[in-house]
Specification:
48 strands; mainly beta; 20-stranded antiparallel sheet; 47% strand; disordered N terminus; seven-stranded mixed sheet; Maltoporin, Chain A; disordered C terminus
Length: 891
């Protein structure tokens, strides 16, 4: 059959070429955090002490051995994910053997053993389904096999985190760079709040902890463990997902893989008709190689991914028509994502009881973005960098194990290499029309944009973000028989003594950064455009906007007490948080976060195939750099700006507004001295069951309440100390400004989240895994005023003065439509602008404005809001009702 070009264009998919360099399976490192445990009895049910238990596997540098205690109990600990064979030996009894026990990352499975009287030379091999249920940890945990991650047909780019789209409690949406990467929201938590670990080392980007900022070849992964709830005290501070990737690690034979993912643009169908589709071109190459440096002693493993992908930008027919009208015959540029993502790991046995792993990981990606309105590449979103780390795991006899970690990464955002070439001129924004508003012209809506580099932080600039994390971590586990059962006591620390984020902005084009243009004839693009607004940067064009130094020193202790079938976990985590701004010599936050944890796991049946679990815990948000509200808010010394407007369209820019930089003297006032980390209280209850045929089910319910989210409140207004009293105006802190915000914690509302979740997994032959998940979520916001009206809570002293009033109640009927359109911040800006105009007495003269009074683009139907507000202020003495509202901002 002969394929035509039309038929080929309808094919959507990827061509995968797998080159196996060896038939041997790539294996994982010894020194994991899984375990096998159980009780050894004779055929009469009596406990057998002194039995030698041995676990062997291709994933182990050497066999794992334990001896049963006086109660017949044993523990095989620090096991990596893999398939194990367990044997039991004792004089006078036949040797016991059980094969095919598949252990996932971080799992604790129960394998009870019954020994028969006989000669030791005889072997009794037990068949049956291997265990699949976690029996000691009550957390909501999903463990994903690497092969499942690679083969799941989710996204063309095969990102290592794609499996999260199938994880209970997780909702995803595409990232805004058209790369195919996803943003993941876990159980009502923002996508930047996940803790991303690799082999227990911090692999996240301190500039932005979004999971998709961390890159990795899928060939490097052995197993990935995701904790979605009920996280124990040993995990780092954080109230989102906790993800830990365990990698492969060589073996006693050389082996490797090669994978090519190839998908040209012509294999994508066009489903948008006359617009342009957001199709992708994938050129991605993965290679891995592992083997012995010294057999049974030292192994190495390495993997690398090279990405050179492109994606089109989805545009409507109307948007495409504007491109064709203003730039006829020009081709539309694509989004691009390029970079290398290496992983190298060396594992060695320093001593029979001490394993050392050394790790290097890099994930630098360079992204150029073309939006629907961009007529060329405008935005740069580079991310990533190198990570170096090591892990030492030690066993000290039958009762004590320790693990020490150290890592350092310099992952950040854009650097100068992110910008491929220099551009000339300002950033040009083209509008259909421009309308007079408060004495200046404002565009009717962006049609096209281009001409210069831009970012979310600035226009016509190099937006440079650097960051780093230093991590030291130690965990000790002590196993104790007695005290009413057995106890697994854990304690440790996680110190991040120096987390750094720096932002530098270099303005281009000699400070002429923006030019807004309108069509000469709104119905004829051929008539050209006219400039109506130009913006210039005043002062230093190379500006340091932030130099942050953060610190989190955390300690924890917890005890897992097992009494017969019940395991109870009690723990607490304490984190000492400090955030310091070097640029302004300002301490932004100093707090101590205390987080208790409770949990239970009850084995309902003797075969350990029915388990009931439950948890309660308090969880605090992890620290983060530039994209977190604390470093991104307040005290940022914005550059001075000069805005020029040609109101008469005669080529003369006669209206000038100068906005000076924000004064550093008020920075100390913009942070609440009691500022602390937002938190969740979380409860969960679940049931696990294993069915015949290696099928397991986990169903659970989760309830979460979010407290103390970051928020902004005005500190410049004279607010009443109760309802029905007049508002005293602005100027409490700075008489030249209107609203002046302080960053604090939201004490007037809480977010409530409830969910039902279910997961069904089936282990299949040859390491394959089948997964089915379903979830249902409910969320609502509860306001403090709602509880007061219900009579359940009374206002605290001074709370009325702390929170700002509802703008509609302040402005009355004349200002209600203004408040809805522009919000309370805008109203404060306009009050400040009115005072400036009153002082000069000349409304046509250049206006010297504080930075917070900059005129911003709003809907054109409010032609003269200044007059509306002045009218409202003159006719109403600013009465205040009992409706109070804080201005909250999400984390």
């Amino acid at each position: 059959m002969r394929w035509t070009q039309t038929m080929r264009s309808r094919i959507v998919g990827s061509l995968i070429l797998l080159m196996s360099l060896s038939t041997a399976e790539v294996v994982a490192a010894q020194g994991g955090d899984g375990s096998l445990r159980g009780t050894v009895k004779d055929s009469q049910g009596g406990a057998l002490p002194g039995v030698t238990i041995t676990a062997t596997s291709e994933v182990l540098l050497s066999p794992s051995v334990a001896v049963t205690d006086g109660s017949g109990n044993y523990r095989l600990i620090n096991l990596p994910p893999g398939t194990f064979t367990v044997t039991a030996e004792l004089g006078g009894f036949s040797k016991f053997r059980r094969d095919g026990i598949l252990l996932r990352a971080g799992s604790n499975f129960q394998v009870d053993i019954t020994m028969e009287i006989g000669a030791l030379a005889e072997t009794v091999t037990v068949a049956g389904d291997p265990p699949m249920l976690e029996v000691t940890k009550p957390s909501n945990v999903l463990t994903i096999d690497a092969e499942f991650q690679k083969e799941a047909p989710v996204v063309e780019g095969k990102f290592w985190s794609d499996f999260l789209m199938l994880t209970p409690g997780v909702i995803s949406r595409p990232h805004n760079d058209a790369s195919g990467r996803q943003n993941y929201f876990g159980n009502a938590v923002e996508h930047r709040d996940a803790v991303t670990l690799m082999e227990g080392l911090y692999a996240g980007n301190y500039n932005d902890f979004n999971i998709n900022r961390t890159g990795l070849s899928s060939e490097a992964i052995q197993d990935t463990e995701v904790k979605t709830g009920g996280v124990d005290a040993a995990s780092p501070m954080g109230y989102g997902l906790v993800i830990n990737m365990l990698s492969k690690s060589g073996g006693n034979q050389f082996h490797g893989t090669g994978v090519i993912a190839y998908q040209p643009f012509r294999w994508n169908a066009n489903n948008v008709g006359s617009g342009t589709p957001a199709t992708r071109q994938v050129h991605q190459y993965d290679f891995s190689l592992g083997g012995p440096i010294r057999k049974d002693r030292t192994w190495f493993f390495g993997a690398i991914r090279y990405t050179d992908n492109k994606s089109g930008t989805g545009r409507t027919p109307e948007q495409l028509a504007y491109h064709d009208a203003f730039f006829p015959g020009s081709s539309l540029e694509n989004n691009t994502i390029t970079g290398y993502q290496p992983w190298v790991k060396v594992t060695t046995k320093l001593h029979p009881n001490h394993d050392l792993s050394l790790i290097y990981q890099g994930d630098r990606l360079l992204l150029n973005v073309v939006g629907a309105e961009d007529y060329e590449q405008v935005e740069v979103l580079s991310t990533g960098g190198p990570m170096y780390g090591g892990k030492l795991t030690s066993i000290w006899g039958q009762h004590l194990t320790t693990t020490f970690y150290a890592s350092y990464n310099t992952k950040g955002g854009n650097n100068l290499d992110s910008y491929a070439f220099d551009k000339q001129g300002p950033l040009v924004n083209i509008h259909r029309e421009a309308f007079l508003n408060q004495g200046v012209l404002q565009g009717s809506g962006l049609l096209l944009r281009g001409g210069q580099w831009s970012s979310t932080a600035c226009s016509a600039c190099f937006d440079l973000d650097t960051s780093s994390i230093t991590m030291l971590r130690g965990d000790a586990t002590y196993y104790k028989e007695g005290w009413g059962g057995s106890h697994q006591i854990q304690t440790g620390f996680l110190a991040m003594p120096r987390s750094i984020y720096d932002k530098n902005v270099q303005y281009l084009n000699n400070g002429f950064i923006v030019e807004e243009r309108r069509m000469v004839n709104p119905n004829n693009a051929a008539a050209g455009t006219l400039p109506f607004h130009r913006q210039f940067v005043l002062g230093d064009l190379n500006l340091d906007q932030s130099n942050g130094r953060d610190k989190d020193i955390g300690f924890y202790a917890q005890d897992s007490w097992r009494a017969d079938r019940l395991t109870t976990t009690l723990g607490v985590r304490v984190d000492l948080v400090r955030r310091f701004d070097v640029l302004r010599n300002l301490q932004r936050q100093s707090s101590t976060e205390v987080a208790p944890r409770l949990g239970f796991s009850y084995v309902l049946t003797a075969d350990a195939k029915n388990v009931l679990r439950g948890t309660y815990g308090k969880y605090h948000q992890q620290l983060m750099g530039t994209r977190n509200p604390v470093p991104s808010f307040g005290g940022n010394d914005a550059q001075g700006l000069r805005d020029e407007y040609d109101v008469d369209s005669n080529g003369v820019f006669e209206t000038v507004i100068v906005t000076p930089p924000v004064a550093r003297t008020i920075s100390n006032l913009q942070f609440d001295p009691d500022l602390h980390q937002p938190s969740f209280d979380e409860w969960s209850l679940g049931y696990r069951r294993q069915f015949p045929g290696q099928i397991a089910m986990d169903v659970g319910a989760v309830v979460k309440v979010n407290h103390d989210q970051y928020a902004q409140v005005d500190i410049n207004g004279f607010y009443p100390d109760g309802p029905n009293k007049p508002f005293g105006g602005f100027g409490k802190v700075d008489p030249n400004q209107g609203l002046l915000y302080q960053l604090t914690n939201n004490t007037w509302s809480t977010t409530h989240y409830r969910a039902l979740q279910a997961t069904v997994t089936k282990n299949m032959t040859h390491g394959f895994q089948m997964l089915f998940t379903v979830q249902r979520q409910w969320q609502h916001l509860e306001h403090l005023a709602d509880r007061r009206r219900a009579g359940s809570e009374q206002p605290r002293d001074g709370e009325f003065a702390r929170q700002q009033p509802d703008v509609e109640s302040v402005l009355g009927a004349h200002g209600r439509h203004v408040a809805r359109a522009v919000g309370s911040r805008r109203v404060g800006q306009l009050y400040g602008r009115r005072r400036q105009l009153d002082r000069t007495g000349d409304r046509s003269a250049p206006i010297q404005q504080p930075a917070h009074f900059r005129v911003r683009t709003v809907h054109r139907r409010l032609v003269d809001r200044r007059a509306a507000i002045e009218s409202a202020r003159d006719t109403h003495p600013l009465p205040v009702s009992d409706a109070w509202r804080g201005s909250a901002s999400g984390a």
